[in-house]
Design a protein that fits this description.
The complex is a heterodimer of chains A (about 110) and B (about 120). Chain A is mostly beta strands and about 110 residues long. Chain A contains no helices and eleven strands. In chain A, strands 2, 4, 5, 9, 10 and 11 form a six-stranded mixed beta sheet that branches. In chain A, strands 1-3-8-7-6 form a five-stranded antiparallel beta sheet, with no helix packed on it. With about 120 residues, chain B is an all-beta fold. Chain B is built from no helices and eleven strands. In chain B, the strands form two sheets. In chain B, strands 2, 4, 5, 6, 9, 10 and 11 form a seven-stranded mixed beta sheet that branches. In chain B, strands 1-3-8-7 form a four-stranded antiparallel beta sheet, with no helix packed on it. In chain B, a hairpin with a 5-residue loop joins strand 9 and strand 10. The chains are: A mainly beta (about 110), B mainly beta (about 120). At the A-B interface, strand 5 and strand 10 of A face strand 5 and strand 10 of B.
Chain lengths: ~110, ~120
Amino acid sequence: GQSLEQPSEVTAVEGAIVQINCTYQTSGFYGLSWYQQHDGGAPTFLSYNALDGLEETGRFSSFLSRSDSYGYLLLQELQMKDSASYFCAVPYSSASKIIFGSGTRLSIRP
Amino acid sequence: GAVVSQHPSRVICKSGTSVKIECRSLDFQATTMFWYRQFPKKSLMLMATSNEGSKATYEQGVEKDKFLINHASLTLSTLTVTSAHPEDSSFYICSVARTDLGETQYFGPGTRLLVL
């Protein structure tokens, strides 16, 4: 089966850097995605890593190591609006289905 | 990306009634849409895959007779919660998959269902 593990909560200070880790177990691997969800809202796509290495998009970066079944989301120059839940996710079939991790709630304090 | 809408955004109904939720892909013809359910402070759980012109594929443990899915066109999928009960109260979210954009899914704004 498929499973993803990520910390349930992370707290950081405004302006700082935070890393949210995700380890996964899948039968067949297509890539690792990250989604952001604010309270009461829908998830929004942040990044997708199909290959090893670091992908950078503005203040957010995502890293993947397929040999370690591990990835992380790095958020820099944290802003209060970054307070949200972050989910890692993996596709698990050719039908484009994805399974989500349990989510990491990021709280940012001034 | 893809722009996805859902209607209604919130619905309150009495126990035993049926509720229909619409999911529209506004700028992309979607042969496949997905329906998720999310309980407070929990992750998104995939309920079913909606396939245009054919039957939906349900995940294990999801009652297909209770959660009726119809995908009549490339831009519209509907989820009907039949004979709703308080335990069906949840946040229902649909998504569209853009495989041409690397297995990315784009989500609708969600529908919050409260069954009294």
